[in-house]
Amino acid sequence: MPLDVRALLCLCLQPCGPFPKLTPQFPAVSKSRTAFSLTGCGIRRQTFSFAGVERIIGGQRARDGEWPWQASIQLDGIHRCGASVISNTWLVTAAHCFRGLRNPRRWTASFGILLRPPKQKKLVRRIIVHERYSDFVLDHEYDIAVVELASAIEFTSDVHSVCLPEASHVFPENTSCFVTGWGALKNDENCC
Known about the structure:
Keywords: Disulfide bond, Hydrolase, Membrane, Protease, Serine protease, Transmembrane. It contains two helices and six strands.
């Protein structure tokens, strides 16, 4: 019986429940970094600023640990797409990343904002592309996939899951929204 991507996402994105409280030990570089503590999924370090243009092209380099749920999906060891950590064994990403390339043995996932060296790297057990996604239609409808890892991610302050707000949550006007991933900082520049 095929797995329904929607049902799996609903299961993985349930309220996170109690998340282990982490208080990592940092070198004595900055008092603001040593005060960091993690109390739930979807929590980033609050010590970073967001100066500059925040667009997909024209963005800025992320700092280590700034987006702990960002993953790199890699084909034969080469970055192909970004993904979000939704549990310690599941990622969500775009279905078009796997167009014609769905053999999980060729894929790995890296965690921690830097591509090299990654903080953690995991093999992929399986790739589940939305059943209504088409490799041959380029309109990106149903362009969602989930990736099951062969082993669990060890959650740390630099690598952990994202979570979504309750459906009833109302965002205040002018709330900031951030897009993360690997890409060019300028037009006509190579990725990553």
